[in-house]
Structure formats: structure tokens, C-alpha cells
Amino acid sequence: MPRPVDADSAATFDRIVRAAVEVLEETVPRNAISMRQVGERAGVSVGTLHYYFESKERLLEACLDGYYQDLAATAQRLLSGLANGPVPAGETAIRGAIATMYGFITQHRALIELRLVTNAMRGELAPERQHEFMGTVIQEAANVLAPHVEIDREELRLTVQLLATSIIRMALLSPGERKALTGSDDDRSIAEFVERAACRLVRP
């Protein structure tokens, strides 16, 4: 069900979602939480939990609402900066935008890992998210980036998606993966590489 309008119901809805996020942050894989665990953490019965969320899948998707709100706000702030800055943007501006997104991903690690797991299980991004986050947001990003990059407009949307996917994977490397790739567990060197690689991609 969507977030209720009634204040008491909305408060219960929000309490359940906060509890679910807390539980999934402690759980690996992230989607392995149980409705019972969430009910206990939220202080509600399983019956109440199922009244608000007909399935665990719906509850997990609700956990991602806050992440998507933060993602949209961060993307809008970065795009506004590029749109209102010099054309073309210098390497410093592009690297700064990439660094911001890299940091955003590491700060939201648990929820992004949840997104990746649920995408893999479903075989696609949740249909209700596709229009906005694979359509509107990516198109807006492509429109803003077009004057700043050396990529055909026809390919720019795909390039934005490629960048997003690559940044996520690199930002979520485990310490063991970083060491296997570079011989060091230095996340800063990975972040700086991603910035340089992004600049090469958009200005070949």
C-alpha cells in the first residue's frame, strides 16, 4: 500500500520502514530479513505488518523510497551546478560530480546492495521505478551533459547509464576485492581512478 495519509497510520508505516532498514543494514544478504524480525524491531504484530505491506517484497521496496529521494535530490543538485556553470565544464567540475556520486554510493551501501539483490532476483529494476530513474532522470542528465561532453546525443543516455552502473560497482568493492585488484585496500585510489576514467569516457 502507498504511505497512508492518516497521521497515526503514516507514523506506523514509517516506524515499520525504519525498523526494516535497521534490520537489513545488519543482515547479509540484505534481502534475507524476515517479517518477524521487522515486526519485533518496530514493536508491531506480524498481522499489523501484513496490513501495511502485503509481502516482504513490497516492504523492501518501501525501504528504498528514502534512498531514491536522496538520489534524485543529489542528482538535481549536481545537474544544476553543471547547467549553471561554464560550457564546457572543466575536468575539475566533472571529477567533482563523479566524486560526489561515489561518496553518495558508499554512504548508502546497504540500500544499494539491497537494490542490486532485488534487481537480480526480479531480472529488472522494479517496474514502478523504471520510468523515472531509467527514463526521466537519465534523459535530464543527458540533456545537461550534452554541451559538456564529446559523445553523440544518441549514445549519451546509454553512457550515463554505463557510468552509473560502473561507479556503483567500483564504490561497492569489498576490501578483499580492492586488494585483489590493486594490491592495496586503499579506497581513495579507487575513487580517484573512477574520476579519471569517467573523464576519459565522456571526452574520448
Task: Summarize the amount of helix as a percent range.
Answer: over 70%
Quote the beta fraction.
under 5%
Give me the number of helical elements: 11
Radius of gyration based on Cα positions: 19 Å
CATH architecture of the largest domain: Orthogonal Bundle
Describe the biggest sheet? none
- The helix/strand order is HHHHHHHHHHH
| N- to C-terminal distance | 47 Å
CATH class of the largest domain: Mainly Alpha
Query: What is the molecular shape?
Result: globular
Task: Write down the overall mean pLDDT.
Answer: 93
CATH topology group of the largest domain: Tetracycline Repressor, domain 2
Helix/strand/pairing class, anyone?
Answer: mainly alpha
The tally of strands reads 0
> What number of domains?
2
Please, could you describe this protein's structure?
- The protein is mainly alpha-helical and 204 residues long.
- The protein has two domains: 7-62, Arc Repressor Mutant, subunit A; 64-202, Tetracycline Repressor, domain 2, CATH 1.10.357.
- 75% of the residues lie in helices and 0% in strands.
- It is built from eleven helices and no strands.
- The chain has helices at 7-25, 35-42, 46-52, 56-63, 65-83, 91-107, 109-122, 127-145, 153-171, 175-182, 187-202.
- α5 runs parallel beside α8 and α6 packs across α11 (187-202).
- The radius of gyration is 19 Å and the shape is globular.
- The model has no long low-confidence stretch (mean pLDDT 93).
